Amino acid sequence: MSSFINDFNNHIQAYFISSTYGNETLVTNNLNHLALVQDQRTFDVSVYSTNVFFVNLHKLMGTGTKKMALMWSAVSVLEAASKWEDTRLALVRDFHYLPPLTNMLQEVHSGEQQQRLLALIELLTHGAQLESHEPFVEALILRLLALMEQGHGHKDKTELVTLALSILVNLCYRNLPMTYLLTKNISVSSFCGKIKELGLVACKMYIILERNDFMKEMDLQYLLKMSFKEVRTVLASKNSFILRHVVDYLHYIRQQDQHAADKENGHKQLSVKDNFFRDNLKEFLDDIERHSCGQLDSTTATNTRKKRKCTEDKNSSGDSASSNDVMDVLFEIMECIVALEPVGPGYRKRIADVALKWIATSKQSCARAVDLLRVVLERSLGDKDEAVRELVGACQEVLTELMAMVANNTDEKLTISFSKLLTTMVKIQSSSSTTDLDNVAEQFFQHVFSTILSSSGHSFNYSLPDSEVRVYLWALHTFNDFANLSPTLWFAKVGNLLKQKPVHFMIARGLTSGDLELTEAMMQVTAAVDFPRREVSQMVGMLSGHKRRQRSERELGQKGETAGYAAPRPPPAALSRDLLERMSQTVSQIQDAVASGQIADVSTVELIEFYNCKIAMETQLMADLRASLGGMSAQIGTLLHQNQLQAVEIDKVQRKNLPLVLKVSALENENRTLEKELNHMKSATASYDRKIGQMKHELSDYIRKYSEKNQQCGALAKELEMYRVRDGNYEKENKRLQHELNDMTKTRDESRKLLKVAEDDRQKLAEQKESDKKMYESKIREREREISKRTDLCQQLEHQLQKRDTKIEAQESELKELMGQIAVKDERIAQIENELKESESIQKAIYSLMNKGKK
Fold it and tell me: Taking the model in full, what pTM does it have?
């Protein structure tokens, strides 16, 4: 529907330039489409295009009432926009729609059209505090009094008169200057006599006229009885505006309970203990149940009908909207009754059944029904366990259906109500398991937070309207309670949620929103173990500065608006309408006496003429001041519209700039982190320098030891060469001895042959032979001993050679190990040199970053 708003903003400019039939048709079609809106976000006043739309619509309604069809289309849009509280208050406070509606009311003479306008004005003025010095206020009061005078005594105009009186009640409720303005234009006694048949609204007007600052106990009792008596009539006529007065009364009782908690005769105790309240509560609930059942039947019947024409759809939508308003107010009344605690478990069960039946059957007014169900659950904690379990079981049966409605609906109120209901149910089931709620809670978690968890913080829309932010925050509060009571399933999920930057931003908006209930809920979330206090405090600081600037601008605007007016003083009690009429009659009688000659004194006549001229001058001056006040009010309205547009534009720009501010803060944090890393790198570089110096010292020690080892290896090589030469000499000597041994063996063989040859001569030469034999044997022994010695010497030389070989091999292996260690040290030296080069490059990069940061 936002496209229709943009189209209207485009077409209305062309209409203001040239009000042709084509431009008028385009504007009317856009307004007719917007009148059928059911989505709250369409008229969100935090959106710039919506503010432009309301300013253009106000300008359109201020052009005059020549084209009534266009005006009534605008009224239909205002009726649709007034369904939501924030928009309704903005229409009165920021856009000032009451002056054009007052002008339109003065031009309308049809009873139905007057009643429709009065219903809209009554809705807009409910809860609004207006200034009595605004020029349209007196005109509105006079028009309302005229309508009440015209409708007095006509039964078919009773509802119109009641609406007019309800508007007067809204204007004068807790507004003393407005009450004086009303009494200035009425005769109090005759006025009270004319409204005595109007029931609850008349009772409230009596109390306002009697004493405006507070209600006496007798007034409260009377208003209480009138409230219950009026319910049947109100439900039959579907006048939700009268029911709102009942809600105001019950809220007043609840507020007074907070101030009178320590007093014995507090207003709550007075009302709750009243016999009429106790005796007629059952009948009161019976009427509400019958009405709700009738509404459910009509809703079911409407769902089974076929589609009708467009005009019939408008009428049916208007009737359904009226019935839905009635049900909203009825649920609020029952919520106040349960909160005041005059009912027992049986009545609470009946009220819960009404809410459950409405949730299961109708999708309209579902948020109020869920709120009522939650309040009943909260007040049932002191009941018996069986009653509480039965009530919780009935609630769990509709949770799945409610979750489906939340998933398929864009109503933020329903989502928030559902979140609060889950919070209450998980608190009630704190002593038992929450497994039954986990499935629905998981679906709700994914429905609300899936977009945040699936996207990055940079792509998040930080210009979300306040209504959507409240949805996120109430859901966060709910799942924080789930995490406290069921940490196994929910603690990690909530912890991950609290790490997201968009969640930090929304928590900060909740803490600075001014909503006491939401702020209290966020304070409970801040008690979490892993709550990001620093990030949220930074966000709160930024948003608080923005809020302070907006508040100062608004205060300057309000000061500029009221700069030309003194504080309204209540007129003296003598300035009533009766006394003014008597004064006028006296002046006319004096003038008649002067004209007829009854007063002949010249000085007296001149004095009378002087006072007549002065009265005429004062009257003319008052007329000029009123005309000037009207012009100034119109100019102030235009300036306020411009101020509202500029404020929304500023808020839009600041919200767009918020991601940049967050990026700047992130860059500042990153800069601080880099500074810490730089200091760490500097300390690491110093430690690396110390290690490199130590390693250089170790390297010089290794080089010195290596040179010593080289010298030892050279000496060993020389000694080895010497041993090799000696071994060669020994080998030559061994060969020579071996050759000699072979020669001796040959000689021995030859000798044996000679012995055989000389065997024959042995006998002859026995003595010679024996001597020769002994001599030769002795020589042989000597030679054998010499041979054995040489053999031992050869074996010793071979053993020495083996030892030298093993020693040479050991020295060669030790040489290889030393060469390997030298290679390892060379590789380590190369690695350290590479690390030094990398450290120098990192140091140069850090210095360049620091230089860029300083620039």
Answer: 0.65
